[in-house]
Amino acid sequence: MSFLSNTRALLARISRASALSGLYLLFLTALGVSADVLVRKLFGIAFVGTDELGGYVMAIATSWALSYAFLEGAHIRVNVIHMTLRPAPKAWLDILAAAVTAVIIGLLAWQVWIVAFESWEFDAVSNTPLRLPLWIPQFMFLGGIVLFLLSAVVVLLESLSHAIHGRYEQASSLSEEQGQVEEYTS
């Protein structure tokens, strides 16, 4: 296996763990919200910050799952043109898509970094009773975005390597969901 293949395999393992961590956070949030509703109904007491923490968890869990979805080929894409192309143009279209993804996610990562760093630098806190330092959820969100960016760049470079050497099917397979090809051809 090449360096890029090994790196992609490592990122796949990290991404899976990241997505599962996001899932567990969502589950714990659902338990917390359920407990809040139950306690409020039975005792008239509300937990402070359940809604705020739920919002942070939704954003964090989403960012932590993006890389996994990307590496599994599970992002939504319109295949009307893609499925009619021969292997070489299909591979180059996939490379273009990976490049655009990397650029957009790179810009997002840069902007999130600026916001998170400024929140940390100025000790910004939420304007709620929790007064949570905003840099905590922002950097956690940034972690998922950076993982997504690394995955997109590695897939882009590995796809380029395959396409340059004429291995177009291998280049396209990096961005397709498993079993997707059979679905279109049968």
Note the topology.
Elements lengths: L2 H41 L6 H22 L15 H35 L13 H30 L3 H6 L6 H6 L1
Helix pairs in contact: 1-2, 1-4, 2-4, 3-4
Membrane topology: Multi-pass membrane protein
InterPro entries: DctQ, TRAP_DctQ
Keywords: Cell inner membrane, Cell membrane, Membrane, Transmembrane, Transmembrane helix, Transport
Descriptive report:
It is built from six helices and no strands. The protein is mostly helical. The protein is elongated, with a radius of gyration of 20 Å. The protein has one domain. 75% of the residues lie in helices and 0% in strands. It is a multi-pass membrane protein. This is Tripartite ATP-independent periplasmic transporters DctQ component domain-containing protein. One of its GO terms (molecular function) is transmembrane transporter activity. InterPro entries: DctQ, TRAP_DctQ. Keywords: Cell inner membrane, Cell membrane, Membrane, Transmembrane, Transmembrane helix, Transport.
From the helix content, strand content and strand pairing, which structural class follows?
mainly alpha
Distance between the termini: 31 Å
- Share of helical residues: over 70%
What percentage of the residues does DSSP assign to strands (E)? under 5%
Q: How many separate domains? A: 1
The largest sheet, given as strand count, sense and whether it forms a barrel, is: none
Could you list the spans in which at least 5 consecutive residues all have pLDDT below 50?
none
| Form type | elongated
Provide the residue-averaged pLDDT: 92
* Element pattern in H and E: HHHHHH
Number of helices: 6
Keywords: Cell inner membrane, Cell membrane, Membrane, Transmembrane, Transmembrane helix, Transport
Domain Tripartite ATP-independent periplasmic transporters DctQ component: 31-160
Subcellular location: Cell inner membrane
GO molecular function, one term: transmembrane transporter activity
